[in-house]
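Archive entry. Fields below.
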Amino acid sequence: MALIVQKFGGSSVKDRDRIFNVARIVANTHNAGNDVVVVVSAQGDTTDDLIAKAGEITHNPSAREMDMLLASGEQISIALLAMALNELGCHAISLTGWQAGFQGLNKLDDITTLGRGGSDTSAVAIAAALHADRCQIYTDVEGVYTADPRKVRNTRKLEEITFDEMLELASLGAQVLNNRSVELAKKYNVELEVLSSLNPIPGTVVKEVTKDMEGMLIKGVAKDTDVAVITILNVPDEPGMSFRIFGLLAQKNINVDIILQSTGRDGKKDISFTCAEGEAELAMRVLKDSAHFSDVSVDTTCAKVSIVGAGMQSHSGVASKMFEAMSNNNINIKMISTSEIKISCIIDRADADKAVGAIHDMLFD
Amino acid sequence: MALIVQKFGGSSVKDRDRIFNVARIVANTHNAGNDVVVVVSAQGDTTDDLIAKAGEITHNPSAREMDMLLASGEQISIALLAMALNELGCHAISLTGWQAGFQGLNKLDDITTLGRGGSDTSAVAIAAALHADRCQIYTDVEGVYTADPRKVRNTRKLEEITFDEMLELASLGAQVLNNRSVELAKKYNVELEVLSSLNPIPGTVVKEVTKDMEGMLIKGVAKDTDVAVITILNVPDEPGMSFRIFGLLAQKNINVDIILQSTGRDGKKDISFTCAEGEAELAMRVLKDSAHFSDVSVDTTCAKVSIVGAGMQSHSGVASKMFEAMSNNNINIKMISTSEIKISCIIDRADADKAVGAIHDMLFD
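PREDICTED_STRUCTURE:
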């Protein structure tokens, strides 16, 4: 007998039929001899509807009242799911965060939420606190794939993936799991499984160490089109300039991803960096207002394509295959960034899908 | 400076405009130097919508999960109203029942509700606990009238009415205040005011003792069309028969209102009583199944019209005026019941509106 935490997203409980589908999965898990704790999101578009209601009242709602408002959505889901489970003869009670042990409250007993994607994080936190054997995240896909199966042919579902690889894939736009939930799972070593609520076959297990099944080194190819490249020309080639630039950006909470610095020439150098497109305008303003960097430009036609896989650095052939795939397709690489488990290239956004397909073909076919 | 509890029903907060209307009333009360505690119902049809959702899942939801579900409706209202108050510059925070002092929870910390009309009762309970100076119940009418102003001409809004009179009027179908809330207000001597959220002029104050303003003895004329008369013929005229009949009904939680017993003749008597129409079938079955009462019939074409006013019993002229009004209109009286503050007549349902109008004209014009 095991203790399993199961999390179902908003689309999995959007109506009566879906709620009963979830209830059957839970009941089957329970009937197989397991204890089950279930975490559910608000139904379908409930959260969006509630946000719209607040938007009619004010453009600047207090965070406290927003959390009070939005928490009602999950309260509806848990009550309906408990009813469905009881209807199936599976005894269940619903618990709000504070009833399940004073979660979801701040020091003033105000109701708080973890924001969008918070139910993944809640599920992992509960699994960690209860020392659960596994935390299953049910979604509308059957697991984690080597690339987006809707856009790339011949993708494969991964049987296993490490936390670090999953974090890289998530931050690269794979959007299967909320990143904070993976970080929390890694911190408390909670074994995750990503699987489908509509087709309940084994999904992808996310854990600390995986067996190197099928000899597959690369775990996935991902793209992120929410990328802006900001370039500062003619930066004085002297100590402290990088600190000045990125200190200014950090003060404004702008997350910088890839940084590229040219070799100095004639006492000058160029610095380029990437950030989310939504933060590019603020970054530009901060830099121009500082009066140190006048020659600043932004390119919002970029995308990042990446391959992820542990141990990649010790296999130099991987990078060259990635570059070969792009070369074969006449795709220009603007920036390159490497880490222990990832190689990323900044390219034209218009080439992103073609690049992912070509790299996937090269590495997996 | 006073402490005032204000309660607003679901129609008063049904959309953005109504919420701001409520927020302005609250802000004005606060700006006049008062402390204000606000109790709101779920928006518009929210409770009905949630009940429908539960109905799709099960026809027999647990009370615990139903309360968990329905409490979400009020949580939405309080968050939106707090946002609107803050938007008007009036500092406010929303509190669920348990945040306001562990209300709305049972001993197991389950969320509980007081059922339909529960927000009136909540408001009075909070007013009692806080020793509030007044509890204002905002509705869609401007106060308590001498009869239903939509159906009777020349009705008058009462400036004041006693708790007992209000209880009689409420149970007679005036439907302005939830009965439990009036009982609670009487028990803890909480001064109530019924007034309109759309036309905020002084309403009707409900209190223990009223000044006998305008020399008005009768406070109102009311009708109740949810009345069935059950008649048992040829009951043996011997001790214990009433206990047998009404004991059987009490076991089934059937509320009996008026009881009429004929004088015994030839060792037999007839007993008639009224109950809500929805309980009449069960009452009939209980009596027939007992094998003691075979000659049982039900009349579901009845209505009850009543006049209410403290001190009525010492003014015999009141009853005769009521009967005169019905006689003038050729309305047959089937049963009569009197109490210290009320006279009720059972008549044909088809005559009910005409009777109320005639009695009101006779007593108030």
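CURATOR_NOTE: The CA atoms of residues 114 and 121 of chain A lie 8 Å apart.
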